Structures are given as C-alpha cells and as structure tokens.
Amino acid sequence: MSDRPIVSPDVTIRDVAEAAGVSISLVSFxxxxxxxxxxxxLCSASQKTAERIVETAERLGYHRNKAATSLRTGRxxxxxxxxxDISNTCFGQICRKIEKLANDxxxxxxxxxxxxxxxxxxxxxxxxxxxxxxxxIVAPCHGVEDSIAKILKRRLPVVxxxxxxPGVEGVGRVLLDNEKAGxxxxxxLCSQGRKHIGLVRYETDIPTIIARENGCREEAEKNGxxxxxxxxxxxxxxxxxxxxxxxxxxxxxDAMIFPSNAITVDGLSAINELGFSIxxxxxxxxxxxxxRSEMFNPWFSFVNQPTKLVxxxxxxxxxxxxxxxxxxxxxxxxxxxxxxxxxKK
Amino acid sequence: MSDRPIVSPDVTIRDVAEAAGVSISLVSFxxxxxxxxxxxxLCSASQKTAERIVETAERLGYHRNKAATSLRTGRxxxxxxxxxDISNTCFGQICRKIEKLANDxxxxxxxxxxxxxxxxxxxxxxxxxxxxxxxxIVAPCHGVEDSIAKILKRRLPVVxxxxxxPGVEGVGRVLLDNEKAGxxxxxxLCSQGRKHIGLVRYETDIPTIIARENGCREEAEKNGxxxxxxxxxxxxxxxxxxxxxxxxxxxxxDAMIFPSNAITVDGLSAINELGFSIxxxxxxxxxxxxxRSEMFNPWFSFVNQPTKLVxxxxxxxxxxxxxxxxxxxxxxxxxxxxxxxxxKK
DNA sequence: TTGAAAGCGATACCAT
DNA sequence: ATGGTATCGCTTTCAA
Lengths: 345, 345
What we know:
The structure is a homodimer.
Chain A: H1 13-20, H2 24-31, E1 34-35, E2 41-42, H3 47-60, H4 66-73, E3 78-83, H5 89-104, E4 108-113, H6 118-131, E5 135-138, H7 145-153, E6 158-161, E7 172-176, H8 178-191, E8 196-202, H9 207-222, E9 226-232, H10 237-250, E10 255-257, H11 261-274, E11 283-287, E12 301-304, H12 307-323, E13 330-333, E14 336-339, E15 342-344
Parallel strand pairs in A: 3-4, 3-5, 5-6, 6-7, 7-13, 8-9, 8-10, 10-11, 11-12
Antiparallel strand pairs in A: 1-2, 12-14, 14-15
Helix pairs in contact in A: 1-2, 1-3, 5-12, 6-7, 8-9, 10-11
Chain B binds a DNA duplex (16 and 16 nucleotides) through helix 2 and helix 4.
C-alpha cells in the first residue's frame, strides 16, 4: 500500500529532482530514456539512480507538463482529424478507431467536423496548426488544396481519406476503389435479377461520386442492363428525389443506386414517403451506411468503406511519417458490401 | 529592407515587435486587449500604435504559440469530452454540437471514447488532465467517482451528461428525465392499444436504465396494463434476447420496450432474425436512437435525448464555470419521442 | 555519471 | 504610454 500524498497544485520536474536528490537534467534524462529489453533504462545514468528517480516521480505523482514539453520540443503528441461530420456513423467509426490507435501510441486526437464547407475546413486546419498538432488525417472538402499546402509548408504530414484531392503531392492517401464500388453495386442488383437500374445524384464534381457512377455504368453495360442516372440540384435534392423515384418506377426502373451517404438518406426517406416497399417495388443499393442496418429493414444492400481498415491504414501511415520511418503512399481499399443482414466478401 | 532569409519557420511575437518597432510586452498587451464597442482596443496603448501592431501581426501572419501561452497562463482553451462511444449516433450528434459551440467560443475540443470501461475512463481523464484541458464534459461510466474527484481537486469544472453519478458534488449535470422517458414509452404503446408490455434489459445498476424501467412500470400500473421485464446477463444479451422475444410473444406480450441504445440495437436485430414484423407481431419502443430512422422501416418508435439541447446546456454550463460567471447546476431535460417518421412534442 | 545553464514563446509585474 | 525582465516547466547541449 503506497501512501499517496495529497496532490497539491502540481508536481514539477524540479520537485522530483529535489526529492530524489539529483539535478533536473538527470530527471529529464532518465524519464525520457528508452527502456531496454530487460525493462531497464538505456541512458548513461546508473541503474540505481535511474530507478530511484522513476520511483520518486511515481510516488510524487509526477506527470510532465505537456505545454512545456511542446514548447521546448515542438512536438505535441497530438494529431488532428478532420471529417465532414462526426455524427455520420461511417466517420464516427473511423474516428473512433483512429482515436483508439492514436491513444495506444501515446497520441491525443483532436477531431473536428467541417459540414463540408471549405471555409470551415480552412479555419480548422489553421486552428489545428496553431495548436501544434504533429500531423493530420483528413477527409477533405472539395477545393481545399491551399489549406493542405499550408500544412505541407510546415512540413507536417497529411493523410487524406474518403475523398481525394487529385494532383496534390506529398500526402498519403487511403481511398476506396470507387469504380469498383460502383461495379459492386450493379453486380448486387444483377444477381437479384434486376434489368433496369437507375442512379440519383446531385450535381457535383466530387471525384468519389463521379467514379462510383462510372463504375456503375461500366458494369451495367458489361452485363447488358439499362442504366439511367438522374442529376439533381444539391439544394433541392431532398425534395426532388421523391418525384424522380416516382417517375423512375413508372418508367419501369426496378432498382436504384444511391451513390453517397447523403443521397442514401434522402433516397430512403423518399421511398418511405412514397410508400414503396423494398425490394418489391424497387431494389436498392445505398452507400456509406452504417453497419447497424440489420436493425432495420434488412431488405436493401449497402456498399461501404471498411472503416477499421481505413482507420488503421491512415493512422499507421501518419505515424510512420511523423516518426520518420514509413512513408506516405496511396492505398486503395476494396469496397465492402452488405446484403440484408449478412456481410460477405 | 532586411536581408533576412524569406523562409521563416514561424513568426513569433518578437518578430512582430521588431517589425512594428515596439517592445514585446506591448505587442502582447495589445494583442490580448479586449475590443471596445466601436471595435477599438481597450488598453493603455495609443490607438495608433495598437492598430499598427495588429496590422503588422496580420501582415506577418502571426499566430500565438499555444504551448507557450498555455505554459505561461495555465489555460489551454481546450475542453475534454468523454463519452462511451463516439460512433454511437446519439453521442456523435452531441459531440458534434459541443464541438461547434466550443469552436465558436474559441475552444478546441478533444473527444474520446471509453467503451464504457472505467479503466479507460480513468486513463483518459488523466491524459486530458496532463494535457491541460480547461474543463470536462463527460458521460461517465459507472464507478468513476474517483476520477471525477481527481478533476475537482485540480479545480477544473466538470459537467456530467447522459449518466449521473449520484452523490457526487461540485459538478454540473445535464440529464434526461429518465422516469418520464419510461412513462413516455409506455404511453406511446398504450395509445397504440397495447395491453401487455415487456421490457428487456441487462443486469446493471446504471441509474439511467433503472429509472427508465421504473417509469415504465409506474405508467403501466397507472393504466392497468401488464408489465414484465426480463433481465439478461450483459455478455450474452445479444444471443439470449432472441429467445426472450420468442417466448414473450408466445406468452401474449404485444409490445416491447428496449430501454437503451445497446438494447435497442440487439433487440431489433433479434426481431429481424426471428422474422417478426413490427407492429403486427410486436410493437416496439427503442431508446437513444438516431433521428434518421425515417430512412428505415418507420413502424417503431423511439424515445430520445434532444441532442442539441443537451449539447447546448452542457457547453454553456461548462463555459460559465470556466469563465467564472455562471454556475454548475443540475438541468433535467424532457425526453423527445419519435413516432414513425414524425417528431412530436 | 551528473549538473549548470541556455533557451522555447508568451505573459505580467514593475519600472520608466 | 511603453519597455525590461523574471518566469512558466521542460529539453538539451556542454562541462565537469
């Protein structure tokens, strides 16, 4: 039983030094020493003093002041994660996993949401920069190349995920193979015997969505299946999608693809509003939805990013870049798909 | 023209001082001055120099080094948020809103998930403490009173939300009225003509769940309706809940209540597995589910925390405590409920 | 093997 | 109205 002292204001390295009867430098030296395989201190200090110092530090309840360390070293052991919306389950899961990995590696994680607006993205990047994060993992908005450049100018590593910024160099990437994801969606519908596939999206040049659409079209052609896509204005999509679906069905379309999470949400809501049933009236494949859909109506399918994998690749790549070993590369991930309540492949 | 190299790793307050031809102290003084109503600087510096200093700072792209400020002042303009699982939509939404409010108030937010394990909770509290957060907003695990005490000993403000730690003093609280939430769930089912209500939960002394159950029982008695609750082992709930639901239906129970998010997830999955349809075979009220259920089968209802309200109250209360105005109190929130795809009350 | 001392960048007290 | 300077806690040469 250790009789822990009543912790008062704060124990500094100076207190430890005094209590252990050594100099401040030595304490710092020992406390930052790497441990040998036999658990011992790899530094020039004698094992005996090293142990005494460590023990004293523990007894006093010493913890290094991060601000001071950060000021002195320029490192903060903090990484910044920026997504469009943390309450989107897909991002929530990725962030959670990144946070866990980072925590295990001794890093703190700062997470922020941009609402997909580049002014917010820029502001957050600045804020994180001035807070001294050691690296970034971001799902970028369209058109934030300048912000990324700003990070790179400070020689901080960046890993992009979920969305690409084509042409940007010097960053790591962990991206879904979106064309393959599109092909996957069509194949699911083919295997359910559908012949007339429709896709709804909003007007955009987000490469993710375009690539998915291309994948769909390609696979549909390959299978000799009709493929039609409807393009709506982003602002009024939620409203307009209802009539699009209504008309689609009138015209004999028997399956719909919603190529992003936002579209999936609006699309399924519209289907409920129209009273269509899945898959009798319309088969459906959505994208980027949570893995809890088994809770709900299990009769539609999803194509997803494997969130854990994305988190793992992203964090490992960033950590490697921060530490100096490991390098920033581009990792293309295979899509995952969910049929009903079963995950295959 | 100075013959300095163009590349400046970072602009410091000293650079600004030199460029503006004043002392470091004055720069700090002006840059920390509060602004008057007419937009001007409330400090003893003359308006002219004040303006010159600010302009110079902007021109050089100066941003204060947070580590240095934090070291010097003890403040970090950072708050720590701890939840059980950020990928749980309910927490995701609350965190997102807190983050936004904090951001607007000039604070950075650090979010972490505990997985509902108190060792994790403790570890995270320590980590946040040593990182120098200015305050905490936490959904505590059961049995972490000691961690909270540790925070309070440092005189940092804490706001609890979602879950209470009865008996802990000196903290703010933003809590759902869980008894009322339970009563609400039963009333929904009554209004749908149900007469035999069942509830499933795992073995626990989490006050949230107990209070909900009590609310249910109370309201059922008041309405002369039968109420049965099944208590499972936490570890095997996911599996056992299937047979519980099967038996319940055999025994004539016509409605189920799942009094937490975790139980709701398992419960609905089980219902899908059993092939029951809602509400023909069983009416259902879940708890703490996301607001996107309109996407899915809308034929069951939810009782929720109003996430924005929780976030707003929590953050305001914390900010008040940090700033010194405002005080920590207990705020009890009314439940929100969702019927089908419509939100009422 | 150990210690003294010079900063890191910003703040705030005390002079002027 | 402005400036000098000690200090926050820690890391890191360089000397002893």
